[in-house]
Sequence to fold (253 residues):
Amino acid sequence: MRIRALIVDDEPLARQRGRLLLAEETDMETVGECEDGVQAVGQITALKPDLLFLDVQMPEMDGFEVLRQVSAELLPIVIFTTAYDEHALRAFDAHALDYLLKPFKPERFKEAVQRAREHIANKQAGAAARGLLELLGERPSAPSHLRRLTVKTPERVLFVNVKDIDAIEAAGKYAVVHVGKQNHVLRETMNSLESHLPPDCFLRISRSVIVNISRVQELQPMFKGENVVVLTSGRRYPTTRPLREIQQRLEFK
Fold:
């Protein structure tokens, strides 16, 4: 039986190293790679891997949150990959199958893979999953909504009150947060931000824009069913959402 493995890491070199080392294991098959937690949740659900190499530290959704988002019955055997030192890992050492400190050595990688192989052969994936759920403190209820965003720069760490945000725009793997005349860049996906913002205060008007409802000044119908949302700051954003739907959200705010 071939063991199907999924590699999740936001560092391309770490994914490549894992893939090359797995290729040396004759009974292992890499079925996919993910560069962030959002992708990982979808791929775990779709591919149902036997083994998961999971980076603990990822910007949009860390490894622990990935496990919280996956149904318990779909949790595979997990080997954490991390830059944490061993002292920091003692808290979950008893629950995780194994962990690899980056950059991991081939001998250590083979050791972790062998442990995973034995667990899978003995059909102990369920017990490992229960241990992970214990580690995570059971599943949380719906995620709490943010009151402030943390913006890290090389010089300082800023805290932005959510209520002061005018709009958020997607910029590749980043998001630009507009607060008055200031712009802050976050390494977050729009989906992640949207899920943590209070839904009664923010509205996603397109794939790339979220607006603060209280900052919407007017709606302007355009051509071919497209509309424009105008903010009090003067910013204008096109939206394909029905004008009536946006209007209802504004009226009941």
